[in-house]
Amino acid sequence: MPASEVLTLLSPELVVLVGIALVLALDLAWRDQPGRLLPFVALAVPVVAVGPVAALWGRRESLLSGMMAVDPFALYFKLILLGAAALVMLGSVRYFQTRAGRQGEFYLLLLLATLAAMLATSATDLISIYLAFEFVSLSCYVLVSYLRGSRLSSEAGLKYFLFGAVTSAVMLYGMSLLYGAAGTTSLEGIAKALRGPAASLRWLAVPTAVLLLAGFSFKIAIAPFHQWAPDAYQGAPTPVTAFLSVGSKMAGIAVLVRVMVVAMGDFQPAWARMLGAFAIVSMVLGNLVAAQQTDIKRMLAYSSIAHAGYIMVGFVTFVLDPAAFTGLNGVLLYAGVYLFTNIGAFLGVIAFEEATGSTTIADYEGLIRRSPFLAALLAYFLLSLTGMPFTGGMFAKFFVFAPAIQAGSFGFLLAAVGVATSIVAAFYYLNVVRLMFFRTVEGANRLIIPGAVRVGLAIAAAATLLIGLYPQPLISLASRSVVMLGALP
Q1: Is the peptide bond before 224 cis (omega within 30 degrees of 0)?
Q2: How many structural domains comprise the chain?
Q3: Residue 192 C-alpha from the chain's centroid
Q4: What is the mean pLDDT of the chain?
Q5: Full residue range of the structural domain in which residue 395 is found
Q6: Which helix (DSSP H) or strand (DSSP E) does residue 412 occupy?
Q7: pLDDT of residue 32
Q8: pLDDT tens by residue, 173-187
Q9: What is the pTM assigned to this prediction?
Q10: Which residues have a Cβ under 8 Å from the Cβ of 402 and sit 6 or more positions away?
Q11: Which residues pair with 63 in a beta bridge?
């Protein structure tokens, strides 16, 4: 493949890379100045990178000797990652001015994490997958512990690092077993080898699947590999928490789906029910523990664990009944809705924390009188996370639960657990709404919401409402994006 064609296929990543260099240069140039323009320069990077992603839409190419792929599946997740980075940056403009000495480092690390996640979604080789995953992890370790003067932030970063080191080693061991059996690190090559020359070693599929799922589940924060998430979400700066809840999670989901479908597709019975069991535990544990939290960041952390379980219901459904691909459509649709709904909720938390310095749920009492705009939008995001009508969350849950009901007894069990735990989720989501609208606080001052956060909240709310009223464009986009290079026709 000509070098010019390779550069074209890598143009989204190259735009982000150039943006990283620009942010670094400007941060050094403005070292003795406040650098108020730097956040908006950084914000322009993911916005501009959407153009090359759109220009590549519909292409299906393999490049760099099979290490990477450009296909609709990867491009869809790149759009989500770029959207997540842009919304998080809108919520970060004022946040770090009073909490950190330098802002440039944050935007640099956030763009590095975004670049790494984009590379992970395109990786089609065990080596490129591992390198991209570690690139994401290293950036996120530093982001979580970014507030140097905060003991909570430092502790969260250390716990995240220790858990990440262990699970990365476990995942790497699984990859080494797969390489030893197949003699290749290419996902397509592994699948072919295990059907032919290495067929006698097919028994390794079960232990390999266990090890790989352990590593991937850590990235996605699926139980029982979720232990890092509550502490990391609570201790990290809230914009970082917002990115972890979507950016890191979506990269993990993209890699999980690609590896298990392309390389391990012949061994679905060996890992599908195991992943389904993880999904059940995530939905039950995430929602039950979230209902007991008093800190809204910690509540949303356990909520995020539950939503990872919901997404896995769609993927397991696809494995159980791959004929129609409806389960995989649901995974992609849920990912798109989750981008706006969850980051929208975190933008509301950022706005409240910026104004009051608190993340305690009880402090949200009477918010409707202090800031009707913030109370209304935050309530709408929480209703969407619940799955209420006229929200994007309703269609997201419908598109993962409905195919599951039709996928046999195990799929019906997954759907039943998902619906039951969604009712539990309504309890703690609506409790926050109750505090905001039906409890009053005398003498409370009105809250001032920064302009950039207002813009982010409005974008996220408009997208969530539009999907709730007219989901067809996102459904069509998700349906056209299920094709993975070398996996589906």
Answers
A1: yes
A2: 1
A3: 31
A4: 88
A5: 3-480
A6: helix 408-438
A7: 62
A8: 999 988 888 888 998
A9: 0.94
A10: 326, 330, 415
A11: 68
**What is the predicted pLDDT for the residue at 265?**
72
Q: Looking at the domain assignment, is residue 487 inside a domain?
A: no
Report the C-alpha gap between 32 and 37 in whole angstroms: 14
User: How many other C-beta atoms can be found within 10 angstroms of the C-beta atom of residue 72?
Assistant: 22
Q: Is there a contact between 164 and 228 (Cβ–Cβ < 8 Å)?
A: yes
In the chain, what is the greatest distance between 2 CA atoms, to the nearest angstrom?
A: 76
Secondary structure of residue 139 in the 3-state scheme? helix
Rounded to whole angstroms, the Cα distance separating 244 from 366 reads: 29
* Residue 465, domain member (yes or no): yes
What are 457's two structure tokens?
Answer: 């909240």
Q: Give the C-alpha separation, 152 to 435, whole Å.
A: 27
From the number of C-beta atoms within 10 Å of its C-beta (0-12, 13-18, 19+), residue 469 rates as: exposed
pLDDT tens for 191-228 read 888 887 766 766 777 788 889 998 899 889 998 888 88
485 in a structural domain: no
Structure tokens at 458: 């409005």
Q: Is residue 420 part of a domain?
A: yes
Count the helices and strands in the chain (H runs, E runs): 21, 2
CA distance 134 to 125: 14
Give the pLDDT band (50/70/90) at residue 18. very high
